[in-house]
Automatic annotation (TrEMBL):
Annotated InterPro entries: AAA+_ATPase (IPR003593), ABC_SmlMolc_Importer (IPR050093), ABC_transporter-like_ATP-bd (IPR003439), P-loop_NTPase (IPR027417)
Name of the protein this chain belongs to: ATP-binding cassette domain-containing protein
All residue ranges annotated as the ABC transporter domain in the record: 2-229
Lineage: Bacteria, Pseudomonadati, Pseudomonadota, Alphaproteobacteria, Rhodobacterales
Keywords on record: ATP-binding, Cell inner membrane, Cell membrane, Membrane, Nucleotide-binding, Translocase, Transport
Listed PANTHER family: SPERMIDINE/PUTRESCINE IMPORT ATP-BINDING PROTEIN POTA (PTHR42781), THIAMINE IMPORT ATP-BINDING PROTEIN THIQ (PTHR42781:SF1)
Organism annotation: Paracoccus rhizosphaerae
Keyword Transport: yes
Keyword Metal-binding found: no
Length: 229
């Protein structure tokens, strides 16, 4: 469980407040543009520090912990793949950034590439793959890191609808298998409905406690209604 205990984070003239607990499982993060969704993820990832409050993961205070030491992996919209490395090397970096992988680790890379439907692409470079395949490489790297907290910021926004729903289904399956806790920022209510039983609404600099996705989107509060159109 991830607890936001009386958090206040200041960024320029903007403040983000959060005071709730996030249970294990899949969560969408939804809210108008500029409401603070990416800021919330940056707080959990350790890239921004709160001026007040604590962030607690499974009873451990991680407020001051460096990003690389947190139990967190992040999947960004721009997949941050290294163009000069092969697919297998890009994925292997999830295990060891220096890429000194032993036999068992190399086998795990092969296995996770199979899982995301990329068996046979290990020796290619990202530039030789489609956008959807590149997204899967980034997903494979995140899965291999196997951190219990997964942050996704509009991860599949660039994909077509069919590929996107395929990736969301794959991600849901793997998250359920691993028992991870996920926060996924999305602008698409259909993605939130498909992926996340619970949604964190971010409204005017306040992140609200997660609530059931369907009812929230069926009857959104005025700000969210205006944003969703
Ligand atoms: N580096 C910064 N310095 C000062 N203010 C910032 C900075 N980055 C973002 N902000 C402000 O913080 C607020 C929240 O930004 P954030 O990116 O979290 O919103 P968001 O909900 O993710 O928006 P979007 O949906 O448009 O990506 C915005 O009002 C933005 O102007």
């Amino acid at each position: 469980m991830l607890e936001f205990r009386d958090i206040l984070l200041r960024q320029g003239g903007f403040t983000l407040a959060a005071d709730f607990a996030l249970p294990q499982g899949r969560h969408a993060v939804i809210g108008a543009s500029g409401s603070g969704k990416s800021t919330l993820l940056a707080l959990v990832g350790g890239f921004l520090s709160p001026e007040r409050g604590r962030l607690v993961w499974d009873g451990q205070d991680i407020t001051g912990m460096a990003p690389g030491r947190r139990p967190v992996s992040t999947l960004f919209q721009h997949h941050n793949l290294f163009p000069h490395l092969t697919v297998a090397q890009n994925v292997g970096m999830g295990l060891r950034p220096d890429l000194r992988l032993d036999r068992a680790q190399k086998d795990r890379v092969t296995q996770v590439l199979e899982e995301v439907g990329l068996g046979g692409t290990a020796d290619r470079r990202p530039g030789a793959l489609s956008g959807g395949q590149q997204g899967r490489v980034a997903l494979a790297r995140v899965l291999l890191r196997a951190r219990p907290l997964l942050l996704l910021d509009e991860p599949f926004a660039a994909l077509g609808p069919a590929l996107k729903s395929e990736m969301l289904a794959l991600l849901s399956r793997i998250v359920d298998e691993t028992g991870a806790t996920v926060l996924m920022v999305t602008h698409d209510p259909a993605d939130a409905r498909a992926f996340a039983p619970l949604t964190v609404l971010v409204e005017d600099g306040r992140a609200h406690a997660p609530c059931p996705t369907g009812p929230l989107l069926d009857d959104p509060p005025p700000g969210l209604r205006a944003y969703l159109g």
